[in-house]
Design brief:
- The complex is a heterodimer of chains A (474) and B (236).
- Chain A has 15 helices and 15 strands.
- In chain A, the strands form 5 sheets. Chain A has a 4-stranded mixed beta sheet, covered by helices on one side. In chain A, strands 7-6-5-10 form a 4-stranded mixed beta sheet.
- In chain A, a hairpin with an 8-residue loop joins strand 8 and strand 9.
- The two termini of chain A are 41 Å apart.
- Chain B has 236 residues and is α+β, with helices and mostly antiparallel strands.
- Chain B folds into 2 domains: 75 residues, Ubiquitin-like (UB roll) (Roll), CATH 3.10.20.740; 138 residues, Alpha-Beta Plaits.
- The chains are: A alpha+beta (474), B alpha+beta (236).
- Bound molecules: iron/sulfur cluster (2 copies) and FE2/S2 (inorganic) cluster (FES).
Chain lengths: 474, 236
């Protein structure tokens, strides 16, 4: 009997997120802070645990992208074992990750963002949600559900029917792929590609209606950071770190992810539990950078798969240098769905994919290990140290929401300046500020909101610290 | 040859042998009684109290794993009261240490987890104690995580009665009870442990595990200890 009951006092990583907009004495918004008022001390919590529990422990950090944590963690554990995992195991992990990317991006696009995009930002909030979408555009809603289900199916077929799968293990994966599962997934790829293509066309069609949002949705020059393949192509699972600037000029390239700490610093602010990573050579706070789908398409030279590359070519026309507006996160996600589906097919068609050599067995051989992967929301870093007995003595995790923390604050400020005037917060304003946050799809409760709800409180404060107005979505 | 005894369990009239426990009779007649500290092949200790049953004319509930049958005994193994007691015991066990199945090596193969599922424990009404016990990973092959121990002493009995090493002991009393190896020293430094792995096989939870197994990967060979001891009994 392999049912699992989960007796788990640990709740999701989330906080009651509060955004404060500060007015200057002329009554204009001049600062914005996205407070993360609760943070679960996962790093502390893991101290003293056997390292091979880490993939499963950290997979619980996020309810939406457990697979990314699972993989970054398994990779950090590979580094502790100091082994290279069998090639088939790496391919299987990549397939699992494609499943995660597809399901997460589909959720983000079709469930969370499409209502805004297709029903309009100023639409009645009571109807601006996925059910409203299902009424107005039943086909799109249905296809979004299918695509997400496809991603989830891949995860379930590979890793088993578990709330939090732990199939990726230190040294490889738990079990090989069966022919049947391979064929079932392969059969579904064409429909996925078709849906992604059409969603892309649809999105391009409505882009024109969002000039103002594009202009103001965290649209500012910044650095972008992500993994790329050693050849400079889009990469989600492994590779080297690359940094580009707002002109898409290379700032740094070929960085070994294990040495991330030489390049990325982490600042702490008293008003947020979420640390503020920055690019070290530039310093804090000017070394602000962004990670995620937009960053990945800005850093990579190309995707490396035909359909995604064709879409990327169109995407590049949006700007001379890097595409800057976070509004285009949506666009980038759709291109990545295409990429993920194409890569998925390639991986599944590899002659070695059914190999049953999927695990390297070893004792820990290194006392420190780093694992980096590109989660749907951006670069994810797991870094562990163990003692002689193999128990964790120190851990550091940088999640995508962390990398984007400074950029999120900057983006909120920009949107608030444009849409908040006077001493009241208007309905459209709240929604736009929320939508900026949603672009980053942070790993907070707000990113899991359904039906147009978001557990976010927006408050407007004058220069003397009086709260003038407050808005909260119930 | 022991004398035959007549007893009734849940209304069924059954034949038993003298010296048999209620649990023994129930099991040989396919009557299910939940157990945790009991392991076939080891002596019974009646530690966990999950196997409590009602006996007509006896004001207290008695543990089936150590209570011997007597002529004319009338036993009830299922009742709302028993169900409530069993649930309560499980909830207390869960609250006492850290049973976070989500990243436990035996998740999916755990007796405690199975029991919780069977008895419908979907929440724990007692405050968790969240102890933070140090994991003993000093042994070359095995790992002892006291955070997941339910103090059933199956490890101790397996080590003593089957292996004859007597590495495991209980230190302290009541809520401070704690399984230790030898004179409360690191397992890796144990002068008595033969690395036979019997304690790891005996443990019902993830407290004892083979090193290097990831979450959910630790599977135990069912009945290996009881087979061992019954083969030995036959040899004697
Ligand atoms: S491995 Fe064997 S000898 Fe060592 S403690 Fe366990 S049962 Fe006893
Ligand atoms: S370590 Fe396992 S077998 Fe030993 S007392 Fe604890 S739960 Fe029981
Ligand atoms: S099984 Fe009888 S008291 Fe534990």
């Amino acid at each position: 009997m392999s049912k699992t009951i989960t007796i788990d006092p640990v709740t999701r990583i989330e906080g009651h997120s509060k955004i404060t907009l500060y007015l200057n004495d002329e009554g204009e918004v001049n600062d914005a802070r996205f407070h993360v008022t609760q943070f679960r001390g996962f790093e502390k919590f893991t101290e003293g645990r056997p390292f091979y529990e880490m993939p499963a422990i950290t997979a619980r950090i996020c309810g939406i992208c457990p697979i990314s944590h699972l993989l970054a963690s398994a990779k950090a554990c590979d580094a502790l074992l100091a082994v290279s995992i069998p090639p088939a195991a790496e391919r299987l992990r990549r397939i699992l990750h494609m499943g995660q990317t597809i399901q997460s991006h589909a959720l983000s696009f079709f469930h969370l963002s499409a209502p805004d995009l297709l029903l309009g930002m100023d639409a009645d909030p009571a109807r601006r949600h996925v059910l409203g979408l299902a009424e107005a555009h039943p086909e799109i809603a249905r296809e979004g559900v299918w695509l997400r289900m496809f991603g989830q199916q891949i995860i379930e077929w590979l890793a088993g029917r578990r709330v939090h799968p732990s199939w990726a293990v230190p040294g490889g994966v738990g079990s090989p792929l069966t022919e049947e599962v391979r064929d079932r997934i392969l059969e579904m790829v064409p429909r996925g590609l078709d849906i992604a293509q059409r969603a892309l066309d649809l999105f391009r069609g409505v882009l024109g209606e969002f000039d103002k949002e594009i202009e103001t949705f965290a649209n500012f020059p910044s650095l972008f950071v992500s993994l790329v393949t050693p050849k400079g192509e889009l990469e989600l699972y492994d590779g080297v770190l690359r940094v580009v600037d707002a002109d898409r000029k290379l700032v740094d390239d070929g960085l070994d992810p294990a040495g991330y700490a030489d390049h990325l610093g982490e600042a702490v602010e008293p008003w947020s539990y979420l640390k503020m990573p920055y690019y070290k050579p530039i310093g804090y706070p000017d070394g602000l950078y962004r990670v995620g789908p937009l960053a990945r398409l800005n850093t990579a030279d190309r995707c490396g798969t035909p359909l995604a590359d064709a879409a990327l070519e169109e995407f590049r026309k949006l700007a001379d240098g890097a595409v800057l507006s976070s509004f285009y996160f949506h666009y980038a996600r759709l291109i990545e769905i295409l990429f993920a589906l194409e890569r998925l097919r390639e991986l599944l068609e590899h002659p070695d994919i059914l190999s049953d050599r999927v695990r390297a067995v070893a004792e820990p051989n290194a006392e420190e290990g780093v694992g980096v992967a590109e989660a749907p929301r951006g670069t994810l870093i797991h870094h562990y140290r163990i003692n002689d007995e193999g128990l964790i003595s120190w851990a550091n995790l940088i999640i995508a929401t962390g990398h984007n923390n400074m950029a999120m604050n900057r983006g909120i400020l920009q949107a608030a300046k444009e849409f908040v005037h006077g001493d009241r917060i208007q309905e459209g304003a709240l929604n736009r500020v929320e939508a900026v946050i949603r672009c980053y799809d942070p790993c907070l409760s707000c990113s899991t909101h359904a039906l147009g709800q978001m557990a976010i409180r927006l408050e407007l404060m004058d220069h003397e610290g009086n709260v003038l107005d407050e808005r909260m979505r119930e | 040859m022991s004398n035959e005894i007549n007893i009734t369990i849940n209304g069924r009239e059954l034949k038993a042998r003298e010296q048999q426990t209620i649990l023994g009779v129930a099991r040989s007649n396919d009557i299910y009684i939940p157990t945790l500290c009991f392991l076939k092949g080891l002596s019974g200790v009646g530690a966990c109290r999950l196997c409590l049953v009602e006996i007509e004319g006896v004001p207290r509930l008695l543990p089936a794993c150590v209570t011997k049958v007597t002529e004319g005994m009338v036993v009830t193994t299922e009742s709302p009261k028993l169900k409530e007691y069993r649930r309560m015991i499980l909830e207390l066990l869960l609250a006492e240490r850290n049973h976070v199945c989500a990243f436990c090596v035996v998740s999916g193969n755990c007796e405690l987890q199975d029991l919780a599922q069977q008895l419908g424990v979907t929440y724990v009404r007692y405050p968790y104690r969240f102890p933070k016990y140090k994991v003993d990973a000093t042994h070359d092959r095995f790992l002892y995580d006291p955070n997941r121990c339910v103090l059933c002493t199956r490890c101790m009995r397996a080590c003593e009665e089957v292996e004859g090493a007597r590495t495991w002991n209980v230190r302290g009393r009541g809520i401070r009870s704690f399984m230790i190896t030898d004179l409360n020293q690191d397992w890796g430094d144990s002068p008595t442990c033969t690395t036979c792995g019997k304690c790891v096989e005996a443990c019902p939870t993830g407290a004892l595990a083979v090193k290097g197994r990831a979450t959910g990967e630790m599977k135990r060979k069912k009945n290996v200890l009881s087979q061992l001891s019954s083969m030995r009994d036959r040899g004697r």
